[in-house]
């Protein structure tokens, strides 16, 4: 077990480089299953979740080469088999369910362990299954498994009751070889959906409208080899933006697509943070006193739920009262009790958090309950008085490449220690 120890009070300076988006790379690796022979992912983030999905593909018979020096992942699919993947492996990460769409598209059937809930909510898969059924598949659930059987997938119109990211991705991948035209309405519009579609199109798929609420997939016969570079991680970038704002520092963040961060940038500006956009990056200047703001998480292009915990940390020290409403996940306030241990004044009422800004946070021992909660606590430690020790740091390693190294380079007093 490891924990991160932060001595607060240091200002940040210099620049930080953002890695590729975890939430693009996970579905992209799953989509590699559809490739006839070989796909290469460049600038891949070396993260625990990425290693897990690679392991799942290996378990199916793929050759997966992870080149940590060049940040490159190569997937060869010629030995892939229709087998039930190791349940313990699949259950390590909910995103493993993203192999369902590609496996059904490739083999016409697949049996996979049902993903469980997790720390941020129950996270059902009804919309994924609704989409597969609409394409002509028979779906059976029972004894902890989902079994999908589709002699032939045929394009159809699918309306999603909620623009689920995972359901949009799974249906898009399942429909790649389906006969005729598939339309997903009320599709998720996240940049990572666009990225997955671009990856599939680079292999010869015909997907149009990804990144908007209506996606059309025209079935093709097969997908050829590709080499693809995913988009930058907007949530990692947003996390460093908040770190700068929190410590009243000025830093440069390289690898930012401003458009993907509009909702975060606009909220930070409302808080008084000064942001200059560059060609492939931004300069963030947090020298002003932070003002309270209200935030409601929403599907893209609304404010991302994956930035809620980090923004909450910033607002613990803002002047005035902020209200944060979490509409995407039912249980994403696990960081609140830990922030309160550090001196924050936050009250929860269902999906609403009411924050009264306090003068300072004080360091203590806290625990990361999930990936973004962990990042939020590290940021809190950067400006807290004294030392903050963040336990269960494995959550953070699932989604942030070398977080303590990147922060150390920016001047933070931070280290990882074995417990
Ligand atoms: N939902 C349903 N039925 C479904 C699918 C989803 O009710 O069939 C509900 C969920 O329970 C949840 C909401 O819809 O309340 C949103 O879920 P969605 O399917 O959009 O999320 P996801 O695909 O499970 C991805 C990211 C999450 C991110 C969300 C929302 C990946 C691997 N994960 O999850 O990332 O929070 O979209 O943007 O792409 C993170 O990186 O920390 C993270 C949790």
Automatic annotation (TrEMBL):
GO terms for molecular function: UDP-N-acetylglucosamine 1-carboxyvinyltransferase activity. Gene3D superfamilies: Enolpyruvate transferase domain (3.65.10.10). Phosphoenolpyruvate binds at residues 22-23. InterPro entries: Enolpyruvate_Tfrase_dom, Enolpyruvate_Tfrase_sf, MurA_subfamily, RNA3'P_cycl/enolpyr_Trfase_a/b, UDP_GlcNAc_COvinyl_MurA. GO terms for biological process: cell division; cell wall organization; peptidoglycan biosynthetic process; regulation of cell shape; UDP-N-acetylgalactosamine biosynthetic process. It catalyses: phosphoenolpyruvate + UDP-N-acetyl-alpha-D-glucosamine = UDP-N-acetyl-3-O-(1-carboxyvinyl)-alpha-D-glucosamine + phosphate. GO terms for cellular component: cytoplasm. UDP-N-acetyl-alpha-D-glucosamine binds at residues 94, 123-127, 306, 328. Keywords: Cell cycle, Cell division, Cell shape, Cell wall biogenesis/degradation, Cytoplasm, Peptidoglycan synthesis, Pyruvate, Transferase. Pathway: Cell wall biogenesis; peptidoglycan biosynthesis. It is found in: Cytoplasm. The keyword Cell cycle applies. Residues 7-407 form the Enolpyruvate transferase domain. The modification 2-(S-cysteinyl)pyruvic acid O-phosphothioketal is found at residue 118. NCBIfam families: murA, PRK09369.1. Cell wall formation. Adds enolpyruvyl to UDP-N-acetylglucosamine. This is UDP-N-acetylglucosamine 1-carboxyvinyltransferase. It comes from Clostridium amylolyticum. The lineage of its organism: Bacteria, Bacillati, Bacillota, Clostridia, Eubacteriales. The gene is murA.
């Amino acid at each position: 077990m490891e924990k991160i120890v932060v001595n607060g009070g240091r200002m940040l300076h210099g620049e930080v480089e953002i890695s590729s988006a975890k939430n693009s790379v996970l579905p992209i690796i799953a989509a590699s299953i559809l490739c006839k022979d070989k796909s290469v992912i460049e600038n891949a983030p070396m993260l625990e979740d990425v290693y897990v999905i690679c392991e799942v593909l290996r378990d199916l018979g793929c050759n997966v080469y992870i080149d940590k020096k060049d940040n490159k992942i190569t997937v060869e699919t010629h030995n892939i088999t229709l087998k039930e993947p190791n349940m313990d492996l699949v259950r390590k990460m909910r995103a493993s369910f993203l192999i369902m769409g590609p496996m059904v598209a490739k083999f016409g059937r697949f049996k996979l362990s049902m993903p469980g809930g997790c720390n941020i909510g129950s996270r059902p898969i009804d919309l994924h299954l609704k989409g597969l059924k609409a394409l002509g598949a028979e779906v059976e659930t029972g004894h902890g498994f989902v079994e999908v059987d589709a002699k032939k997938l045929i394009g159809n119109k699918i309306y999603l009751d909620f623009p689920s990211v995972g359901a949009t991705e799974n249906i898009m991948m399942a429909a790649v070889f389906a006969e005729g035209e598939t339309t997903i309405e009320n599709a998720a519009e996240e940049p990572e959906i666009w990225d997955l579609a671009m990856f599939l199109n680079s292999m010869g798929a015909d997907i149009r409208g990804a990144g908007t609420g209506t996606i059309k997939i025209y079935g093709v016969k097969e997908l050829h080899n590709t080499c693809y570079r995913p988009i930058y991680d907007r949530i990692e970038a947003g996390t460093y933006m908040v770190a700068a704002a929190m410590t009243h520092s000025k830093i440069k963040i390289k690898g930012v697509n401003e458009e993907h961060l509009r909702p975060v940038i606009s909220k930070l500006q409302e808080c008084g943070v000064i942001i200059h956009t560059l060609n492939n990056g931004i300069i963030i200047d947090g020298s002003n006193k932070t003002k309270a703001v209200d935030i409601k998480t929403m599907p893209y292009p609304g404010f991302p739920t994956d930035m809620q915990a980090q923004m909450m940390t910033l607002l613990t020290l803002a002047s005035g009262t902020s209200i944060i409403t979490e509409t995407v996940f039912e249980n994403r306030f696990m960081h609140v009790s830990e922030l309160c241990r550090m001196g924050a004044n936050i009250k929860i009422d269902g999906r609403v958090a009411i924050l009264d800004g306090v003068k300072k946070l004080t360091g203590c021992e806290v625990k990361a309950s999930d990936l973004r909660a962990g990042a939020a606590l590290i940021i809190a430690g950067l400006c807290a008085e004294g030392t903050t020790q963040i336990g269960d740091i494995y959550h953070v390693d699932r989604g942030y490449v070398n977080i303590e190294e990147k922060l150390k380079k920016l001047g933070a007093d931070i280290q990882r220690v074995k417990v």
